[in-house]
Design goal:
EC number: 3.1.1.29
CATH architecture: 3-Layer(aba) Sandwich
CATH topology: Rossmann fold
CATH superfamily: Peptidyl-tRNA hydrolase
Family: Belongs to the PTH family.
Subunit structure: Monomer.
Strand content: 15-25%
Protein name: Peptidyl-tRNA hydrolase
Largest sheet: 7 strands, mixed
GO cellular component, one term: cytoplasm
Structural class: alpha/beta
Radius of gyration: 15 Å
Number of domains: 1
Shape: globular
CATH class: Alpha Beta
Order of helices and strands: EHEEEHEEHEHHH
Distance between the termini: 28 Å
Strand order of the largest sheet: 2-3-4-1-5-7-6
Number of helices: 6
Length: about 200
């Protein structure tokens, strides 16, 4: 068994102009998980984000949506993790993933940042540790590098958003395995899903 997850972070950019953009897929996941748990995210300036907690099998699980911009996501993640003494190996970061098509989602542990500025900052703010879990939410690639920024900062089509939402629903359904530290089960179940 791997370490159980105690902090779940949803990456995105703050503000109404970004809330429906592909780059906020991680936020969509945390919002969906909060709804399923019946909790509400509220602003907590001490942690530079929106936070909530819920109980799972006697353990406190913390949710965080940084209200910093994407490239400063580590500021919020480190502030909360350090205060509650949550090791990096017990953090799950949900983020948009260019290398997966809409409708696909994958759990994994460790790895690089793959050019994702939110992951880059989290790695940097946690002593260059890459050992946190990731939930990679497919948003598709626009085809060329010069189109990546406009792609991630734009809204997906209705069809793509429906696929992303279905993948998020499946990820939420499989989050319990991550909270128990059963990465293999979570990966196997989610990797077998295709919206």
């Amino acid at each position: 068994m791997a370490d159980p997850v105690r902090l779940i972070v949803g990456l995105g950019n703050p503000g109404r102009e970004y809330e429906d953009t592909r780059h906020n897929a991680g936020v969509w996941y945390v919002d969906a998980l909060a709804r399923r748990q019946g909790v509400f995210l509220t602003e907590d300036k001490k942690y530079f984000g929106l936070t909530a907690t819920f109980s799972f099998e006697g353990e406190t699980i913390r949710l965080l949506v940084p209200t910093t911009f994407m490239n400063r996501s580590g500021q919020a993640t480190a502030a909360l993790a350090n205060f509650f003494k949550i090791p990096v190996t017990q953090i799950l970061v949900a983020h948009d993933e260019l290398d997966l098509p809409p409708g696909c989602a994958r759990f994994k542990q460790g790895g690089g940042h793959g050019g994702h500025n939110g992951l880059r900052d989290i790695i940097s703010r946690h002593g260059n540790s890459r050992d946190f879990y990731r939930l990679r939410l497919g948003i598709g690639h626009p085809g060329s590098a010069d189109r990546v920024t406009p792609h991630v900062l734009s809204k997906p089509s209705k069809a793509d958003r429906d696929l992303i939402d279905r993948a998020i629903d499946e990820a939420v359904h499989n989050t319990a395995d991550m909270l128990r530290g059963d990465l293999n089960s979570a990966m196997n179940r989610l990797n077998g899903f295709k919206a």
